[in-house]
Amino acid sequence: MTPQPRTPANRASADRLGRLLNLVPYLLARPGIRVAEAAADLGVTERQLREDLELLWVCGLPGYGPGDLIDMAFDGDRVTITYDAGIDRPLRLTQDEALALVVALRMLAETPGTGNRDAIERALAKIEGAAGDLADAPVAVRLPVNAERLDAIRTAVAGGRALHLTYYTAARDETTERVVDPMRVLMVGARGYLEAWCRRAEATRLFRIDRIDAFTELAEPAAPPARAVPHDLTGGVFHPGGDLPLVTVRVGRGGRWITEYYPVEDVRRDGDGWVVAMRVTDLGWAQRLLLGLGADVTVLGPPELVDRIRAQAATALDQYAAPHPAPPPAAR
Hints:
Layout: H1 8-28, E1 33-34, H2 35-42, H3 46-56, E2 71-75, E3 78-83, H4 95-110, H5 117-131, H6 144-158, E4 161-169, E5 174-188, E6 191-198, E7 203-208, E8 212-221, E9 246-251, H7 258-261, E10 266-270, E11 273-279, H8 283-293, E12 297-301, H9 303-321
Antiparallel strand pairs: 1-3, 2-3, 4-5, 4-8, 5-6, 6-7, 9-11, 9-12, 10-11
Helix pairs in contact: 2-3, 4-5, 8-9
């Protein structure tokens, strides 16, 4: 992989990101500092610093409403941070954090079809430079199974034959067998998908490449019917419609990441937490997700999901309450 050359625009964006990450703690330590003095310390013009401050005003925590965004007060040409959104100290990575980032970026660089590889290479080079000898730790990241499976699926689709799939459906936590008529292979983000007409569902479906446990090329040619319309993926893979179940939960700080990771319909602040509404394709999937969040989430609806989670939690507690037979004495 050959890194793309760094353009002036790329360098400016990277420099600005680093400056923004350190700007809030810098200003917190100097309440009421003059803008001109701060600009001189940071090596930028007053105009650039004011543009940075305007950008910080729309940055903050999930929810992005009053009380979530970074806030500041101006008194003439002086500025004071009044809410830091948790960015209260300069960015410093521990050794474990730096190594984790290096591994994650190396994995991302090895993922087939990943876009913006030049940005990944630049970020990786910066972190490896900052990590020093730690970056030379014997950690090799390769994704041969994903890459080989992706290439094999592409070859099979190019052959124009129907496929028999053994496919794992995460939403229902089950493995199924199905025959499909391939249409195309595509990348969405870092994931590869096979788009095909599914004869079992009698509809066009997207199959994640990493969830295809096995496939066999059949003798018959692929023949998607005329009604097999490709998906519109401009907004991503999942397009929640109003016919899907609406799940409402209250999460604390430890669970607010779901508002960034999954499409949500509504997020509103509620005391020291957030009330989140999101559409899901399957309540079983929502049940497993929310149980995994533990005490940091309270399920508000729908009633069916509340009852299912309550029952499963009670069953788990009963397992702890039941006495276990004592182990047999050790042989002498």
